[in-house]
Write a structure and sequence with these properties.
16% strand; five-stranded parallel beta sheet; four-stranded mixed beta sheet; TIM Barrel; alpha/beta; globular
Length: 284
């Protein structure tokens, strides 16, 4: 039962990628070798689905087009379980590594395969590594032109996105039209914003700190967003030979993720982004 007095619906999202889909490590895990690597995403997604079923919760899965092309049955299972299927692009490239034309091509390829599997055009997008920044705002125009209704690709941090970016869901206006942006949830600390609801920041944050951060956002009238990855639910993850910084970001305290996400599911109300933002299936 929720202990949130306001009973606000928060968002929970899953970035569906396999263990080797890591940004900026092409010298260690080159894309032309991906097909030869061990497939672990099918088993790890099943664990996530089982956890969500236990709590009767529907969420948003941002599915990588590469995964969808190789495992359409997995995407079908996600969709048939009542979860929202959105896109995470095709090849897990950060937006600032692509030209606008390359971004559109990557986006369209992922959209096409997901729509073919589910029969529904995705309305949400998430860029790898929160890579919509002040320098890549041109991506919003393309997302609107491609009929997306929301994006979840920003983080208001000095070192990663831009501290001046909005901290809460907000409307973005472009020459092509409007869409909604749902940024990574952060807590204000002095002059900086601290992420705490996913990835390495959630793994490093004490559980009580995460709970208090979500409750604070809800008391202010905003939904929080928790995000996770299937590879964080792997009992025996492959050993990665990566630069220390990347290995630390990927592996550190990984075993804490399933425990924390499950506890949050028992404590708060969660739903897919499209529901949290009030977007129904007929809007696309």
């Amino acid at each position: 039962m929720s202990d949130n007095d306001l009973d606000i619906l928060n968002a929970l999202t899953v970035d569906v990628e396999d263990w080797y889909h890591i940004c900026a490590v092409g010298d260690y895990l080159p894309q032309d070798k991906w097909d030869a690597y061990e497939v672990r995403v099918t088993k790890t997604v099943e664990r996530v689905l089982e956890m969500l079923d236990r709590h009767g919760t529907k969420v948003t899965f941002f599915v990588l087009g590469y995964v969808a092309e190789h495992h359409p049955d997995l995407v079908e299972r996600i969709y048939e379980n009542g979860h929202e299927v959105a896109t995470h692009g095709t090849f897990h490239q950060r937006i600032f590594e692509m030209t606008p034309d390359e971004f559109r091509k990557d986006l369209r390829r992922s959209m096409a395969v997901l729509e073919k599997i589910t029969g529904e055009r995705p309305i949400g997008y998430r860029a790898p590594e929160w890579s919509i920044t002040r320098e890549t705002l041109w991506a919003y125009d393309i997302l609107v032109e491609e009929r997306f209704l929301y994006d979840s690709s920003t983080v208001p941090l000095t070192c990663m996105g831009d501290r001046a970016l909005p901290r809460w869901p907000s409307k973005v206006t472009t020459a092509a039209g409007e869409l909604l942006e749902f940024p990574a949830s952060t807590m204000r600390c002095l002059w900086e914003n601290l992420p705490f609801t996913g990835g390495l920041p959630m793994r490093m944050s004490p559980y009580w700190f995460i709970v208090e951060g979500i409750k604070k956002a809800n008391r202010m009238g905003y939904p929080a967003m928790v995000y996770t990855h299937p590879w964080e639910f792997d009992d025996h993850p492959p050993k990665l030979e990566l630069p220390f910084r990347r290995r630390f970001m990927h592996d550190y305290l990984m075993k804490s993720t399933p425990r924390k996400v499950e506890a949050l599911l028992a404590r708060f109300r969660f739903g897919p982004i499209r529901e949290v933002l009030g977007l129904d299936r007929g809007s696309a």
